[in-house]
Amino acid sequence: MLRLYKVCHRLSLLPLLPLCPSPPKPRRFASARTPSRRRKAPSRHAARLKSTMTSAASRLANLAPLNSVVAENVGGGSNDSVSSTNELFDEEEALGGNYKLPPPEIRDIVDAPPVPALSFSPQRDKILFLKRRALPPLEEIARPEEKLAGFRIDGKYNTRSRMSFYTGIGIHQLMPDGRLGPEKEVHGFPDGAKINFVTWSLDGRHLSFSVRVDEEGSDSTRLLFRSPAVYLNAVFDNFVWVDNSSLLVCTIPSSRGDPPTRPLVPSGPKIQSNEQKNVVQVRTFQDLLKDEYDEDLFDYYSTSQLVLASLHGTVKEIGRPAVYTSIDPSPDEKYILINSLHRPYSFIVPCGRFPRKVEVWRTDGQFVRELCDLPLAEDIPIAFNSVRKGMRFINWREDKPSTLYWAETQDDGDAKVEVSPRDIIYSQPAEPLEGEQPEILHKLDLRYGGISWYDDSLALVYESWYKTRRTRTWVISPGSKDASPRILFDRSSEDVYSDPGSPMTRRTSTGTYVIAKIKKQNDDNTYILLNGTGATPEGNIPFLDLFDINTGSKERIWESDKDKYYETVVALMSDQNEGDLHLDQLKILTSKESKTENTQYYIQIWPDKKPCQITTFPHPYPQLASLKKEMIRYHRKDGVQLTATLYLPPGYDPSKDGSLPCLVWSYPGEFKTKDAAGQVRGSPNEFPGIGATSALLWLARRFAILSGPTIPIIGEGDEEANDRYVEQLVESAEAAVEEVIRRGVAHPSKIAVGGHSYGAFMTANLLAHAPHLFCCGIARSGAYNRTLTPFGFQNEDRTLWEATNTYIEISPFMSANKIKKPILLIHGEEDNNPGTLTLQSDRFFNALKGHGALCRLVILPYESHGYAARESIMHVLWETDRWLQKYCVPNSSKVNAELNECKDEVGKGLQNSESKVAATSGGGGPELAEHEYEGFHSVPRSLLW
Predict the structure, then answer these.
(1) Distance from C-alpha of 50 to C-alpha of 52, rounded to nearest angstrom
(2) To 5 degrees, how large is the angle CA 784–CA 787–CA 791?
(3) Left if phi > 0, otherwise alpha if psi is -120 to 50, otherwise beta: which for 620?
(4) What is residue 908's DSSP assignment?
(5) Three-state DSSP string of 688-727
């Protein structure tokens, strides 16, 4: 059952009460998404995705949205590695069956308890500490699930499958001076309760959340719905605060019976037709509907009855059951924006492209009007910046009581069509007067990317275009027809050095977020706060600028420590009062970390700006606290500057330890210019976060780790990046390998390469086309045959028939006969990522085996594109460590023998020096003789020791 609870508290925190659940139907287990709900944190638009707030949010995973907390995916990152001892573990090192455990030095790091997530009340006077657990057991991931229309659904709880959760809630009072009061823990959950979708009421006095349970709670809790027959449906949206005392909830219709059963005998053949000769090109989506039975099953699980529930106990059904995907109350609490899906469904695209109806209702459920009914969108072109026809991004204006705005394409959604304007932004009241037409707010020649609102005098509009990497920010005055829009920023999205930052937003009394305007004493100018990553050639130095919106002048009022620490502005904390904010009363939340100190959070209050620390999270892996980290710079032979982060194990002494085995872990990226590709991203002072499958785990096994060496694939002007993919990939890898050898930290015959997803694609290509660089490879969840993704992949939007040679040449499957170095392939059996079907690894392994390659394929039952279960992750680590110990760190006598075989080719001086390196470091690679120095002329021999 999925039950919905509420916590009631005033200044002193009162015990919890409950809310609504969901029922035990056919069994499944769940995967969560961020629920779309009112009073959410400010929207992040496409043109602002590179902003400080976004980069901070992605990096600081333990900070939840400031007014709502949602489940996060457990485990399953897309980047990282594995471990073990030399051969197989003893009996006690097995998890059961054939699942193995990595050595204790890796296992202990992965099993360390995670720090809690944080959520601040709307009034910024309380903080939730949301407790989390370590990795889930395989039995949870293995629960049955329905794969429908691009989703995976847990039928038992009627929610997304594989859903993470919180295990407990602690509440702290945040004192005016920034100190934290003692924690008061919320009690009354049933044993083993799984908490999700935590949200504050608008006034911060109540807290709602769902709890997945199989039994009723204790007598210290009660459910919002008194009836035991009312359950939460969380397949799409789940519940939202309408006002301070009522919630609109998606529930399972009371009339719903048992799920449909698949007929023993089909009613007929499965038929798809294109007799109208429509051009329909789609990428390789997975988990799609397959037949009429799947359509019925999708309707069964996704159909909701909307219920308006009061905290006082009243319950009212509103509207008819439908597939509601989002419910969004207007700021004045009078209307609800309702999105729903309907038939006809599709067997070739996920539900995001199904026919969609958008309506306006009053809060009591009375229908007001239909905004649009968009048809099935199977024919969206694959070119980047192509979109659906009709109204898009329909939202409430955050600065108005009940005014809607949206964008409409003027190019039929096809990015290849040249037209001006390309997008038009419209606005209209929820209930327009008879004959009142939508107002045109702004016309754009690039693709619309969102709006930040303040009021009728100020809004910022964002547009961008991928092909040229151009991004623009416009200043408009929505309430003035006389004020001409003007461009505030016009730049390349790739040029991180020129990024001015993103405007900080403040919460209003209605729960929306608007641009924060700042007042300076004795100054009537209009200022906003720009929060930036501060990319520089020395690394990121985040900043907060006071920016005059009219003159463009800036004043830096806060900046990160450049020497030892990496600090970011996470959120504005002084927005609980109405009106403009005064600079001398500014209050912000910042994070602070260093190479050896994990992230902590601070409150800073103007004018003295003295940081007050509010968290004291313990170091997550103290055994690696003294690791060495350095951001290094080097150049590839075409002059492009490359960067990487070099990690060395604790206590490493180059004079005593010599060179080390090295693991290179990376992921390529596309660029339009060499200058942008060469810019430095990241900070040398960031704390080295180590995920459950991170390559950094091998620091505990005395490896050097070259993390994220930039692999830019550049297509300048009219050139497409992938036309020179292999050439640029090899040049980037050669430069990285040359640099770690030059520094003396990596043994030239003991350098392994690995990656996940597109990084796995990179790994296979490097072993095929640069066998002289690496002794072995680890490729996880990759795609290796691009003819199986014929309508585009990654950032390639040409089809197989438009760029046949490119598709063939960059597919490592086509070069399987060239791969002579050991390669470990790992893939989740239930991979749901477009393009990376498990079939990719199956076929690639067979191709390798057919040419006698040294290879191994590991398929992880029940795992998706990222790996989640503890058994799976531990086994991945065991497999990878076994591979590295066997093929990257062999005994030195064999290396010396193979070096002697290379004597005539590499010269006596090189052979002698290499013997010294092998003796000091304890070994080299078994594949040295055949390829190790072939074609490696870009490395001066003097750098090889």
Answers:
(1) 7
(2) 115
(3) alpha
(4) H
(5) CCCCCCCHHHHHHHCCEEEECCCCEEECCCCCCHHHHHHH
Q: Are 175 and 105 in contact (CB under 8 A)?
A: no
Spatial CB neighbours of 305, under 8 Å, sequence gap ≥ 6 = 250, 251, 252, 253, 254, 317, 319, 320, 321
Query: Contact at 8 Å (CB) between 68 and 40?
Result: yes
Among 81, 116, 75, CA closest to 599: 116
Question: Could you tell me the two tokens for 826?
Answer: 């790992």
- Burial track 516-544 (b if 16+ CB lie within 10 A, e otherwise): bbbbeeeeeebbbbbbbbbbeeebbbbbb
Is the preceding peptide bond at 253 cis, omega within 30 degrees of 0? Answer: no
Strand order in the sheet with 68-69: 16-18, 2-8, 206-212, 194-200, 68-69
Question: How big is the chain by its Cα radius of gyration, in Å?
Answer: 28
Residue 409, SS3 per DSSP: strand
175-189, 365-379, 546-560, 917-931: the lowest-pLDDT one: 917-931
Length of the chain: 945
> Both tokens of residue 573?
């904390």
pLDDT in tens, 546-570: 999 999 999 999 999 999 999 999 9
Which residues are identified as catalytic? 757, 831, 865
Q: What whole-number distance in Å separates Cα of residue 67 and Cα of residue 52?
A: 19
- Cα 303 to Cα 235, 256, 340, 365, distances in angstroms: 9, 9, 10, 17
Q: Band of the pLDDT at 926, cuts 50, 70, 90?
A: very low
Name 603's bridge partners: 589, 612
